[in-house]
Amino acid sequence: MNTTYLNTEFAANLVALRTIVYREIRRFTRIWPQTLLPPAITMVLYFVIFGNLIGRQIGDMGGFSYMEYIVPGLIMMSVITNSYGNVVSSFFGSKFQRNVEELLVSPVSPHTILIGFVVGGVLRGLAVGLIVTLLSLFFTHLQVHHLGVTVLVVLLTATIFSLGGFVNAVFARNFDDISIIPTFVLTPLTYLGGVFYSIALLPPFWQTVSLVNPILHMVNAFRYGILGVSDIRIGVAIAFMLAATAVLYGVCIRLLIGGRGMRQ
Amino acid sequence: MTSALSIRQLTKTYNNGFQALHGIDLDVAEGDFFALLGPNGAGKSTTIGIISTLVNKTGGTVNVFGHDLDREPSALKRCLGVVPQEFNFNQFEKVFDIVVTQAGYYGIPARIARERAEQYLKQLGLWDKRNVPSRELSGGMKRRLMIARALVHQPRLLILDEPTAGVDIELRRSMWSFLTELNRQGITIILTTHYLEEAEQLCRNIGIIDHGRIVENTSMKELLKKLHVETFLLDLKESLLVPPQLLGYPAQLLDHHTLEVQVEKSQGITELFRQLAQQHIEVLSLRNKTNRLEELFVSLVEKNLAKVAV
């Protein structure tokens, strides 16, 4: 195998990657009333009801107004659900309509396929995160305490949940299977992940239990990036996220190469 | 001549234990128009699935233009275009986007992809529908879309799994001429079809697969030579109440004006007409009762069924 061939293969895979990413963007922007609008409406309701009406009665949390405190958590909640939802519905949809075969018969490498879907999920997560951030400016003043941590955490979180969505899509056999994890796992973990409260409010036992919730680490790391306050150690949270990304990537690529649920 | 496809001892056993292929060997030469025939469940789609990497083989080797499926899958895929039996494109995507996106998967830059999409969609009569979501196309248009998509990376070997199923006669004939033209340009074509007339008209060579075994692999000419008896239907001018006595030609009346006659290849039909003229029976027209290939196909499959049963 000579260098020219490798270069050609590499260039071809770059074109394929761009194609997959462009197709994913086209998908979630084409159905924007299902993908971009609902989280915007939901988050405005959260800002109005929790942040404004109830938050005024709660007072400060972690040295910030309740509205300021919950905004980073709500942004992360949007990023998590949308990056996961994008990949799980797009890849399962491809399996369901069998157009995943278009990819499987082509020479595009499994890594390119996986990265393409993950980038699609990350971009939708970021797009919704940006929309929610802009909407939050109508309700509170936002500052960024540590830009590097903020960007790194949001990117890692979106990547982890895009990979998680991919695993779900590979194993899913029907549309019920793609809603089970978001409903029974992601939503409870997100609500119990310190989006609306500091775990310092919990009794010591439940504080310890909360620490095994990965979303708690992500939300707090992101909150640290925005506000500079956190219930957990940032270094540990980022190390955990990097490890989770690597492990999930390995699982996904193995599933893709093995063709589970795609090749007979 | 270079081999476009070479299959050796290909086996496939599915997870449920069903053995779909029992070590088949198959060769298709470059530039050939090859028919792969077989009854439902014979192993045609499994074979195509393995070549296109949608089905994992259990054993054996597959080679496309010298590229081994296990060692050079990427190079093999670049030589190959597949039109599957079932529609497998995104029903919500526009026609033009489907073809351009497929080109992108093969690493074809966007500008060239768009040019080729235009070229093939025009050739296949779909250009007017380029901005229509694919779900709104008719069945025949969907089939043509899959052909355009399979051609966009300009493969050297095109495999079509029942491309004319459910397509009306006029469209089927226009697809035949399109495929013939592609073959004339040098693209090797492998076709599976239920329309044996289609295989007889288009293909130079033929493989018949049954119960996961190749039961015949030869040229269409050679295969048709094996046909010893043909059945003709004669439309008679005057009605008959009893079948005429025709020496050496078994005959029966289907109705008062239609006579069915079996003619052995060695006999020819001159003697038949001589005897009919002697008995003052006038014939208005003459036609084959069934497609010649169909008769052979049935006899080969029946023979194999007997072997499998033993």
Quick structural gist:
Chain A is mostly helical and 264 residues long.
Structural write-up:
The complex is a heterodimer of chains A (264) and B (310). Chain A has 264 residues and is mostly helical. Chain A has one domain. Chain A is built from 11 helices and 2 strands; from the N terminus they run H-H-H-E-E-H-H-H-H-H-H-H-H. Chain A has a two-stranded antiparallel sheet with strand order 1-2. Chain A is elongated and about 60 Å long. In chain A, 45% of the residues are buried. The mean pLDDT of chain A is 90. With 310 residues, chain B is an alpha/beta fold. Chain B folds into 2 domains: 223 residues, Rossmann fold, CATH 3.40.50; 64 residues, Alpha-L RNA-binding motif (Alpha-Beta Plaits), CATH 3.30.70.1560. Helices cover 35% and strands 28% of the residues of chain B. In chain B, the strands form 3 sheets. Chain B has a 6-stranded mixed sheet with strand order 6-7-8-3-9-10, sandwiched between helices. In chain B, strands 2-1-4-5 form a 4-stranded antiparallel sheet. The longest helix of chain B has 18 residues. Chains A and B meet through helix 1 and helix 5 of A and helix 2 and helix 3 of B.
Give the topology.
The complex is a heterodimer of chains A (264) and B (310).
Chain A: H1 3-30, H2 32-35, H3 37-58, E1 60-61, E2 64-65, H4 66-96, H5 100-104, H6 110-136, H7 147-171, H8 177-191, H9 204-210, H10 214-227, H11 234-258
Antiparallel strand pairs in A: 1-2
Helix pairs in contact in A: 1-6, 3-4, 3-6, 4-6, 4-7, 4-8, 4-10, 6-7, 7-10, 7-11, 10-11
Chain B: E1 3-13, E2 19-29, E3 33-37, H1 44-51, E4 59-64, E5 67-68, H2 73-78, E6 80-83, H3 95-105, H4 110-123, H5 139-151, E7 157-161, H6 169-184, E8 188-192, H7 196-202, E9 205-210, E10 213-219, H8 220-225, E11 229-236, E12 251-255, E13 258-264, H9 270-278, E14 283-288, H10 292-309
Parallel strand pairs in B: 3-8, 3-9, 6-7, 7-8
Antiparallel strand pairs in B: 1-2, 1-4, 4-5, 9-10, 11-13, 11-14, 12-13
Helix pairs in contact in B: 3-4, 3-5
